[in-house]
Design a protein that fits this description.
This protein is of the alpha/beta class and 268 residues long. Helices cover 40% and strands 13% of the residues. The protein has eleven helices and eight strands. Strands 1-8-7-6-5-4-3-2 form an eight-stranded parallel beta sheet. Helix 3 packs parallel to helix 5. It is globular and about 55 Å long.
Length: 268
């Protein structure tokens, strides 16, 4: 049985399930391809990847699947590196390095990859779906993505952010509740004002927007998906639920910890 929604139609997937794009290693090309081959939308968390590595991983995903998949990047806000804060943080970590026998790292020459350079790969490789968080790409970037026929998916943690994304012409919006694991994508106002539960933010976002909404945050199984659909979402995005997959790039002990933790275990 399949459930067809505007999201499944737009993303050209069979099931209204999106594997969350968890940057830093969990979303391997193997996991992305496995989810896409199963009828959901596999997502590559590519924010920390250099353009060359991003391209190689896109090629590897395409080697493993002909189904649609997603590449996710961060939209960084302007910032300046503060040497004094870096030094203070480094001193706080020193006792842990000594205990674990870890060498002190060199200060990186750059604290972010270039979004423009990463986007060039997305455009050149004609990635089917591009999602982003922590902000909104500029008008020129979004126009190039639309002209290339790439579906855009933005992340909002408040109705205000959802409206900003819709005004920018984004195709689909992820309503990310306060239960979302890892970091959240608040970009308008203080993040503490955006700690709204998933089951509260989804109907608010659905009522305020005309574009389809994907629910995200604390959804682990079919029951959560069903609840999100009842509240008006047209798909669910799940992250932790996929960390226990054998294709996941997490540490070998992590999946076992997820499954044994009653508050996080899928299906419990």
């Amino acid at each position: 049985m399949t459930l067809e929604t505007r999201v499944t139609q737009a993303l050209k997937i069979q099931h209204p399930v999106v594997q969350a794009p968890m940057a830093g290693g969990p979303t391997t090309p193997e996991l992305v391809a496995a989810v896409s081959n199963a009828g959901g939308l596999g997502s590559l968390g590519a924010a920390y990847l250099s353009p060359n590595t991003l391209r190689e991983q896109v090629w590897e995903i395409r080697r493993r699947t002909e189904a649609p998949f997603n590449v996710n990047l961060f939209v960084p806000s302007p910032f300046e590196a503060d040497p004094e804060r870096i030094e203070r943080s480094d001193k706080l970590l020193e006792p842990y390095r000594e205990e674990l026998g870890i060498q002190a790292p060199e200060t990186p020459s750059s604290f972010e990859d270039s979004l423009d350079d990463q986007l060039e790969v997305v455009l050149e490789e004609s990635v089917p779906v591009f999602s982003f968080t922590f902000g909104v790409p500029n008008e020129g970037q979004l126009r190039r993505l639309r002209d290339a026929g790439i579906i855009t998916v933005g992340t909002a943690t408040t109705v205000r952010e959802g409206l900003r994304l819709e005004e920018s012409g984004v195709d689909v919006i992820v309503a990310q509740g306060g239960e979302a694991g890892g970091h959240r994508g608040t970009f308008l106002g203080d993040f503490r004002d955006a700690l709204i539960g998933t089951m509260a933010i989804v109907p608010q976002m659905v009522d305020a927007l005309s574009v389809p909404v994907i629910a995200a945050g604390g959804i682990m199984d079919g029951r959560g998906l069903a609840a999100a659909i009842v509240l008006g979402a047209e798909a669910a995005q799940m992250g932790t639920a996929f960390l226990a997959c054998e294709e996941s790039g997490t540490h070998p002990e992590y999946p076992d910890a997820v499954v044994k933790q009653p508050e996080a275990a899928p299906g419990r």
